[in-house]
Design brief:
The protein is 63% helix and 4% strand. The two termini are 54 Å apart. It is mainly alpha-helical and 637 residues long. The protein is globular.
Length: 637
């Protein structure tokens, strides 16, 4: 099998004309995002003329949206437009009717709400900018375009068909431009036909038909470049040719086309795409030639490319794949991170991810010094201090982490709510002090009710109320948070401050539902709240390593209230504590007590699973002890 086929054909609908993405700074401020409606109706009713832009997000205005729609290459284009931004789950029925089943996506609508065009999934800024510009130029639906007889409208119909994934219809319509004509419009039609043929070749499962489509595409790519070597679609055509030649196992031809792009149209987004795809997908992944891939990216940067930061990020990814090259990969990321561009934030995030990964402790002190320098710059934004706080946590320095967060809170700027959320999470999870976390969560709710951290704060506050024993408040707030979580497909990024790892919203909703069931049982039981507070005292003591106080609390529950709905929880906590202390026999006794005396309780199944784990572990250790040593003798027990 031709291993070059591992290269994905990433043209995708919408890469119709070249429009390079710039690398100038984009500072995140509230004013940058002013004018956004929170409903589709709001955008439709707005007084602005022209198309309405609807940005469909996964989980609020997060990384992709900030780096795309706040980018200085795109923000001025959309600023005059009536526009809305909302999550997919905020208007599910409408988006389903529009054919939007995932996020991120964009939809361009007429003032009456009819679809002009749509792009589903993440795309390059140049693609989105081009699509919006064409929608402004042709503010009409696909069916309205179909009724037009002028060539410009007919070509726009082909473009919209490509954007919406109707490649077969687009191919039929574009085929009419395959004659000897050499006008600008006919040239664009020939390019579109080459493009859509490549897409059809990539999508069909019939190998023979796929090869036919690709052959047809390559024929017209070559013909286009022969007829229009300086045509406005020349760079896009070369990119298609690069992919097709790699798929046809002709990497030398592809590399020659890339070198041509670097010389003739270095600022083009297609040049960026070609260099990164060739080095990472072909050389590194398909050919397993990591040094060659790194060298290729280095040479591309030496050509003074405007995409040097992108190439540095790609080279860092490759260098970080090998232990001996990790310092060089980090140096690449630091070079980008010190800049003042959109890419700088991504590089900083990747550095923090590296530092917080297992076995990365030796790297943390150096990265802390690096971020301390960044934070001291006059133009540093709050995100740098958030990242610095994460690094202090990776080092185990909670006091310094809190100091960074307090600086942001005092400044009351864009990141103040995130800093408060972080502080509350530290109080709840690191300090095991729900009582301390509650006022911080409450302050965030009061001061920043319109920010994306609100619902993560409400989720955290509900848990803090529960673990502080304030059951009435916990129950009331959980009843409000559960419907929010249940209706969502994705969680806002701010939830990751509270969670050890990403989780689906439904899992969190089920967790809170279980808490509410526990609260209901406690309320039914005479003295239930007092017993629960005794149990909580043990849980908090155990989490802080005070096993003596914890054991006293748990035994108070099981000895004084053996019939309580919380007795099985106390036995289970005892078992966990004994297991952590290495007393396996005591842990098994606690778990067996649940199995015999509390059948059907909510800890019955977890106890059963833990007993099975202990049994498997014991068998494994016995096998290890019984296995002959390397010298052939049985080791001592």
């Amino acid at each position: 099998m031709n291993k070059s086929r591992a290269l994905p054909f990433v043209l995708l609908a919408g890469l119709i004309l070249s429009c390079g993405q710039t690398s100038t700074p984009a500072k995140r401020t509230e004013q940058d995002r002013s004018g956004w409606h929170t409903t589709v109706e709001g955008a439709l009713k707005a007084s602005e003329s022209g198309p309405r832009l609807v940005v469909v997000t996964r989980s609020g205005w997060s990384g992709y949206e900030k780096s795309t729609f706040d980018h200085p290459a795109l923000a001025p284009v959309i600023a005059p437009m009536a526009r809305a931004r909302l999550d997919l789950s905020d208007d599910t029925t409408r988006f389903e009717n529009l054919g939007i089943d995932r996020a991120p996506s964009i939809v361009l609508l007429t003032p009456q709400g009819a679809v002009i065009s749509k792009i589903v999934g993440q795309r390059d800024i140049s693609v989105i900018k081009r699509s919006i510009a064409r929608a402004i130029e042709f503010p009409m639906t696909r069916s309205e375009l179909l009724g037009k007889t002028d060539t410009a409208s007919q070509l726009r119909w082909v473009e919209v068909s490509i954007e919406e994934g109707d490649f077969e219809s687009a191919a039929i319509a574009a085929k009419r431009y395959l004659g000897p004509g050499r006008s600008t419009e006919e040239a664009h039609g020939q390019y579109l036909y080459a493009y859509v043929s490549a897409e059809l070749g990539n999508q069909t499962e019939d190998k023979k038909l796929s090869e036919q489509h690709r052959k047809e595409s390559k024929t017209w790519v070559d013909e286009y470049l022969k007829r229009y070597p300086a045509g406005e679609d020349a760079s896009a055509a070369k990119w298609i040719g690069i992919v097709l030649n790699l798929q046809g196992n002709k990497p030398k031809v592809s590399e020659a086309l890339i070198q041509d792009l670097l010389k003739s149209d270095s600022p083009s987004a297609f040049t960026r795409q070609a260099v990164i795809a060739y080095s990472m997908e072909h050389l590194a992944r398909a050919e397993k030639k990591l040094p060659a891939a790194i060298d290729f990216l280095t040479r591309a940067m030496a050509d003074s490319s405007p995409w040097s930061e992108d190439f540095l990020m790609a080279r860092a990814t490759l260098r970080l794949a090998e232990a001996e090259n990790i310092p060089y990969g980090i140096a690449d990321l630091q070079q980008v991170a010190t800049g003042r561009t959109i890419m700088s934030s991504e590089a900083q995030d990747r550095l923090v991810m590296i530092a917080t990964a297992p076995a990365s402790q030796p790297l943390v002190p150096g990265l802390i010094l690096f971020f301390q320098d960044l934070a001291m710059r006059p133009d540093a934004d709050g995100a740098v201090r958030i990242r610095l706080a994460r690094l202090y946590l990776a080092k185990g320095d909670l006091d310094r982490a809190r100091n960074e967060l307090k600086i942001l809170t005092a400044a009351d700027g864009e990141f103040a709510d995130e800093a408060l959320l972080f502080q509350a999470a530290l109080a709840l999870e690191a300090d095991r002090s729900p009582v301390s976390a509650i006022p911080i969560f409450e302050e965030l709710q009061k001061k920043y009710p319109d920010r994306e951290s609100l619902w993560p704060a409400r989720y955290g506050l509900a848990r803090a109320y529960f673990f502080a024993g304030e059951l009435a408040k916990a129950d009331k707030l959980m009843a409000e948070v559960i419907p929010y979580l249940s209706a969502r497909r994705y969680l806002p990024e701010a939830f990751l401050i509270l969670l050890p790892q990403p989780q689906p919203p439904q899992s969190l909703a089920m967790q809170l539902a279980d808490y509410r069931k526990k609260i209901e049982d406690i309320k039914k039981e005479e003295g239930g709240e007092a017993i629960f507070k005794e149990l909580l005292a043990g849980v908090l003591a155990s989490s802080k390593g005070d096993s003596s106080i914890a054991e006293t609390s748990f035994k108070n529950v099981v000895d004084k209230h053996p019939g309580s709905t919380l007795a099985d929880d106390a036995y289970f906590e005892l078992a966990k504590m004994h297991l952590r202390g290495g007393d396996i026999e005591a842990a098994m006794a606690d778990l067996n007590r649940i199995m015999t005396s509390y059948k059907g309780s909510d800890q019955f199944e977890p106890a059963q699973q833990m007993l099975a784990y202990i049994s498997q572990y014991s068998q494994f250790m016995q096998q290890q002890m019984s296995a002959p040593a390397e010298d052939g003798r049985t080791p001592r027990r």
